[in-house]
Amino acid sequence: MLTAMDALTAIAEPTRRRIVDALRVRESSVTDLVAALGMSQPAISKHLRVLRDAGVVTADVRAQQRIYRLQPGPFRELDAWLAPYRQMWTRHLAALEHHLDAKEQ
């Protein structure tokens, strides 16, 4: 079973984040990603394999192309994992704002 950490590990690499960003905008073939990112086809394919193995993307075969798209599940799991950290930072920033406001007065 894949976890949020699998997705986090997969997207930790900057090139894979660029691929994820491109796929966020639209589904793409390897050829589309090569053109959009200015990388070689073997490099894009290698990164797509890692993203696919982590469950971050899936591929549909259309004619003679694979069309890649993001899978929402891993991003939901990442969002759930990050929620407590967002809450912690929101509390810290609210306390800082309160402290700074009190200092101004």
Q: How would you describe this protein?
A:
The longest helix has 33 residues, at 72-104. Helix 1 (4-11) packs across helix 5 (72-104). The model has no long low-confidence stretch (mean pLDDT 92). Strand 2 and strand 3 (65-70) form a beta hairpin. This protein has a 3-stranded antiparallel sheet. The relative contact order is 0.15. It has 5 helices and 3 strands. By secondary structure, the chain is an alpha+beta fold.
Summarize this structure briefly.
The chain is an alpha+beta fold. The chain is built from five helices and three strands. The longest helix has 33 residues.
Name some characteristics of this structure.
105 residues, alpha+beta, three-stranded antiparallel beta sheet
